[in-house]
Amino acid sequence: MVPWCSKDKEAETAAVPMGSETPRDETRREEKRRESNARRGRQQGMKGDTPVNSTMSVGQARKLVEQLKIEASFCRIKVSKAAADLMAYCDAHVCEDPLITPVPTSENPFREKKFFCALL
Predict the structure, then answer these.
(1) Euclidean distance between CA atoms 28 and 35, whole angstroms
(2) What is the rounded distance in angstroms from the CA atom of residue 60 to the CA atom of residue 117?
(3) How many helices and strands in the chain, by DSSP H and E?
(4) How does this chain assemble (predicted)?
(5) pTM for the structure as a whole
(6) For residue range 35-73, what is the model confidence (pLDDT) as tens digits?
(7) Are 41 and 49 in contact (CB under 8 A)?
């Protein structure tokens, strides 16, 4: 039998119409929820709401905090603005892109050298 699907609980909730709960009932329900979350956290190796990673050392945690501070300090822009800026940059530098305007064969250092005579 699944504990969250018992007929007794269904009968209890069916007997109480929505919106007619007293503040005391809400407080009691909140306390039960906290207790079950705390119990679940102890089973999963958690202390309160913060997960504990036993393999992470203090030094690694400090490095992680530093990295997160650096990432949080970045100036963020909307994707639509970033895409527009990227398209404008590509349009401005299209003449310098060797994939769009190929390098002339006379200036290409990687071209295949032609042999004038082949020995058989």
Answers:
(1) 11
(2) 65
(3) 4, 2
(4) G proteins are composed of 3 units; alpha, beta and gamma.
(5) 0.35
(6) 777 766 555 544 444 555 667 788 899 999 999 999 999
(7) yes
Three-state DSSP class for residue 18 = coil
> CA 99 to CA 97: how far, in whole Å?
5
The tokens for 74 are: 């970045």
Six-digit token pair at 118? 């082949």
Report residue 17 as tokens. 């119409």
Residue ranges with strand state E in 1-116: 46-47, 50-51
Residue 11 and residue 17 in contact, taking contact as beta carbons nearer than 8 Å: no
Please compute Rg for the chain using Cα positions. Answer: 33
Query: What average pLDDT is seen over the chain?
Result: 74
Q: Which of 80, 83, 64 is nearest to 72 (CA)?
A: 64
The residues, any chain, with a CB within 8 Å of residue 95's CB and separated by 6 or more, are: 101
